[in-house]
Amino acid sequence: MAEPPVPSTHREVRLTARPGGRLSPDRFEVAEVPVPVPRHGQVLVRNRLTRVGAVTRTLMEDAAAVLPMSPYEPGRALWAPALGEVVAAPGTRLGPGDLVRHQLGWREYAVIEADDARRVDPALWPDPAACLSQGFAGWLAVIRAAEVRPGETVFVTGAAGGAGSLAGQFARVRGAGRVIGSTGSRRKADYLVGTLGFDAAVVRGEAPIEEQLRAAAPEGIDVLVDTVGGEQLRAALALARRGARCIVIGALSAQARGGTTAEVPVDTLALFSRGITLRGLTTADHRDAVPRWEEQFSRGLRGGVLTFPHTRLRGIERAPRVLGELLDGRHIGTVLLES
Q1: Using CB atoms within 10 A as the burial measure, which of 6, 289, 298, 321 is most buried?
Q2: What are the backbone dihedrals phi and psi of residue 226, each rounded to the nearest 5 degrees, phi first?
Q3: φ and ψ at residue 224, rounded to 5 degrees
Q4: Cross-strand partners of 338
């Protein structure tokens, strides 16, 4: 069946004003604009999936320069990792029908420079959507930063999210003796234990996190993969064993509220007396590891050793609401929006 012709217009999601507090729908606009025309060396793609992440909220604030990426500008379309299908690519090695990963999501069509389009090999992935997984950060924390060892106890905060859900799985693959996750609901806790193979889960709001964590890890923890911060980071540091490695890859407790700082009191006496490592990690500093991550992740998916937890929703007009739902903790895994 022939592909439908390229329309003259398409939709894109724009930021109308910086939120400056709780996110509201009036900070977004779904605008209809002309479909861009590629020049020689450029690629026109029809976006199939856009990844929706908590960092989107942070990038809306003027102080988002704390991140290793540029903040969004009011009046312009948002952007995010996306999976697109090539429509036209004059003067490039790409052809119609090729799948590519790029950064111009939050719109139905996009023109990108050929060098900014990474071809996705469908044979590598049971589901090409997996190339948009947020698990790279969790994998880096477990494999490269913490170097989880057999028998260790690993605590993952925000474990039902896109990064945490993969961090826990890779900790198990590495031979961790006990994997514990934190999450925001009993439904998600049951998913972590019943589906992803976590040994235990602590649930925000059911009791103090430190109290729950002591019950789940009475001998303490060896590795923390932290995506949340706040009370959960404090609890993990209180239970960190001698030589523990604490890797911070997110700050959802602040990001969900639009915060651009995430302060947590740290007992520095405990850090040095117990030889605890506290390290921040961002994927931007480890692009060299992407091929290894993709090879291990895709091999694990094909072999049934790993799963790709994700939520797939449809309709670019729903994008602002989907972001709000993500920040409220309503979804499991990486959140993808079909357009």
Answers
A1: 298
A2: -110, 120
A3: -115, 130
A4: 49, 314
Radius of gyration from C-alpha coordinates of the chain:
21
- For residue 83, the cross-strand partners are 49, 101
Query: Please, are residues 120 and 90 in contact by the beta-carbon 8 Å criterion?
Result: no
Residue with token string 């500008």 = 73
Query: For the whole prediction, is pTM greater than 0.85?
Result: yes
Average pLDDT over residues 196-222: 97
Strand order in the sheet with 200-203: 200-203, 178-183, 153-156, 221-226, 240-248, 277-280
The 10s digit of each residue's pLDDT in 269-323 is 999 999 999 999 999 999 999 999 999 999 999 999 999 999 999 999 999 999 9
Cβ atoms < 10 Å from Cβ of 336: 26
Q: What is the full DSSP assignment across 290-301?
A: HHHHHHHHHHHH
Query: Any idea what DSSP says for residue 145?
Result: I
Q: What percent of the chain has pLDDT over 90?
A: 84
Rounded-to-integer distance, Cα 109 and Cα 44, Å: 7
Residue 1 has pLDDT above 50, yes or no: no
Q: Cβ contacts of residue 196 below 8 Å, gap of 6+?
A: 159, 165, 168, 169, 181, 307, 309
Per DSSP, the three-state class of 58 is helix
Alpha helix locations (H) across 219-285? 230-238, 252-255, 268-273
**Which residue did the predictor score with more confidence, 68 or 136?**
136
Higher local confidence (pLDDT), 85 or 65: 85
Q: What is the 3-state secondary structure (H, E, C) of 109-131?
A: EEEEEHHHCEECCCCCCCCHHHH
Strand partners, 165: none
To the nearest 10 degrees (0 to 180), the angle between helices 230-238 and 209-216 is 40
SS3 at position 11: strand
- Give the distance from CA 149 to its chain's centroid: 24
Strands 109-113, 118-119: pairing kind: unpaired
Is residue 4's pLDDT more than 70?
no
